[in-house]
What does this fold into?
Amino acid sequence: MSADFWIFVVIGFFAQLVDGALGMAFGLLSTTSLLAFGVPPATASAMTHITEIFTTAASGVSHIYHRNIDWRLVLRLAPAGMIGGALGAYGVSNVDAKALEPFVSAYLVLVGLYILFKAFQPLWLREVKDWAVPFIGLGGGALDAAGGGGWGSIVTTSLIGRGHEPKKVIGSTNLTEFVVTLTISATFVVTLGWSNLGSAIGLILGGVLAAPLGALVVRRLPVRPLMIAVALIIIVTSAIRIF
It folds into this structure.
């Protein structure tokens, strides 16, 4: 097996470890790392989302088992997220990679800054406004597909910030991410073909190996310093690519 394959295994492994601790950032870290190794934006996002089919499926089933799902929230999020994801994946697949990379990197810098902000910010709950849920799902799906990640950091934090119960938000968002990721991956396969995406197997292997360690990571590592570290990694690597 090539050296690139094992690099992708390592990327998938550590990205899943961080995701297990934060409930987000697998896509952001995977995509940022793949871009740093010269993978085109559309291919990097596609590889990440194909990998996430497996990790989000396991996560969704677990949350159903533990009754962390608000099915009304899922029914509002899922259709909008799937539409946004398909549009974002189609758009990023049909734009020149060189022209797109600065915009993807700028988006990742903004998400990194947002995670950094949330790391230092106490949670202020507001009145729940359900009318905003489909719009959050639409925007989260589109940006997740175009940037290779961000569904959890955008959708989860937005819904919790609007006053939804955190446990139900995390469970519902993780379950919904499976169908959104499936839609995004199918769109990428149709537009890019599978031949460019075979290296996703390395990411899948790394992610699956790390998945059982998620609970241990949550118990042992402090969340706030980890959020700060993730944010700084995303910001620095993306900024370097911009400049």
